[in-house]
Amino acid sequence: MKRKAPQYAALSYCWGSPSDSATQFKTEKGTLANRITGFSLDSMTQVMRDAVAVTKALSISYIWIDALCIVQDDRVDWERESTTMADVYRQAYITICTPGSSSCHQGFLERKPKSIVIPFKSSITPEAKGSYNVRIGGRAMASNPIAEGMDLTYDELTHDHSSWSQRAWTFQEAVLSTRTLHFGSFELAYQCPEHIRSEAGQSSYPSEIDVGIFNDLVSNAPARHAMWNELMSRYTPRHLTYETDRLPAVSGLARIMGRGPKDYYAGLWRQSLVVDLCWVRHVDDIGPTDTKYELLRLLDANKPSYIAPSWSWAVRRQSFEHLIDVNDYRDETHSVAASTTPQGLDPFGQVKDGLLTIRGVVVTLPSDIVHDPPEGARRSLLHHKYVHEKDRRIAQVSLDWWMQDPEDKGELLMLLLTSHLYPFEGLHRRVRVGFGIILHPSKTQGRYVRVGAFMTDRYGFGLFQRSSYQTVEII
What we know:
Distance between the termini: 54 Å
Structural class: alpha+beta
Strand content: 25-35%
Number of helices: 14
Shape: globular
Oligomer: single chain
Largest sheet: 7 strands, mixed
């Protein structure tokens, strides 16, 4: 007779500050034997005790809590356990999420909603007196003046305004779980693939990447690719105690993409590599402190805290978007070869180096980059920065640092990767538009780092048609 798997709940929460984390109840090698024999609830931190109480109320016999399952003082054991995270959350009957708690010592069941106390005394019967307790409800947003200083709603807590929603390690826990209970400071909400229902009586529908993802995408490669890029763009702005965990914190998601580790290069995929390389940082995430000097320092492949190669979005903690869709492109390279070396046991986790070798058309950036927006243009992803050749605008350029006006072209190169036909207004035929990346010499002789991306304009593709192929190495 086939044994039925036990039904269990999982807990997604924040450990809190370094001082709180240091006092977290966890299983280490020195305490493993005692933990196996049993332990009292009083020895656990408050967020764990609350999770146990919820599990009991749901009549669920088991709960998975990471601090109890991972031997924290052994990196090898940590890596081995962290590779199972995707399965833990996907197979859980329900996941308890705690956006109303910012520390392992802060519970989420005892709520104290903000309210206004209004004294009352009857003018008819003087002895009848007391007070009203008034608090805001429903979906009032914090941006609304009437709601300023009041409790945050489910949407705000789960997307922007809680430690839980800003931590990188909680991201894949939330999107992989098929059912979630979100305990906010103001209200409780239940979410599954069909709907979201809140304690305040509101009901809505989740997006396809909010919960239980990848269920129907195994055979649909383009949809799976689009979902991966959307998820990673949401993920990259999130906070980590150690930036070197940027890739390990989504290794569970990468593992269930339906492709093997030989197809995975620090967040990018072999099957769509020329498209995946054409990403740009979102303009709202680049500020005056993001200088060229700071970027080149971050991309130094010899620094001790190596995160990812320069051509991976993972090396920067900002959201990004792609310039071209995977369904509509022509590969303009002769060959592309990528490789990364895992830092430890997980082939989808931290890497210690990476190399991209491309044989393609490379040209020197023909002019300084200038701010030259078309008349009536709106603020765009590319910030309307352009390069020219012979007084003709040939390309829109987005660098990964805060661009000056004009931006000195210096030693920058343009490497063409892909193209498609674009219908320019006023023309009866479509014009081929090219996409590629901007390169800067690295500290290693003969190799480059990726520092931006470009899209050619109406006359720009011809610049590459007049040039020949050459091989470049990007680290």
